[in-house]
Specification:
The chain is mainly beta and 171 residues long. The chain contains 1 helix and 8 strands, in the order ββββαββββ.
Amino acid sequence: MLKGCGVNLGNPETDVDMISSVFVYGTLKRGQCRGAMWPVQPLSVSVVYTHGTLFDRHDYPAMTSGTDDVVGEKWDFRPEQMPRVLEVLDAIEGANQPRVPDLYRRVVVTTWDLCESGAAEHRADAETSRMSYTYHYASDPEDDGFTRILPDQSDEGRVRPCVQWPTTSRP
């Protein structure tokens, strides 16, 4: 576990039996350009958040460890489906590929349910927390032309403002 940021690099050989969900924040979400590339149907898809720092570029987002509340989707699968899911997603995300530098790294993060009904529900609650795989950008996103997405301080009714991609200011 990286101290203070809720990120665990995970062990892809041993953790696959324990974690059966993937947190996505960009092109793999429903309705996005890679939303139909999942190799199997999920048991469920829910809107959740995790802690991180989210970046935008004209073509796709990047996330690194951080403290912002990043909204995305948690895709739940049967444990026996996870090896295939991770194999396909690693290829899509450019992670863990032989003899090729990683574009993204697969990590383990904590996710929490996101309720839209008001400020009291938007908090880190141990009862709704789940461990999920996600992908962090492997280098400094700003070096590759990404711009940090800042929390919208005008998000009234939330304890903490969230960040998400695509941003509402995109053309």
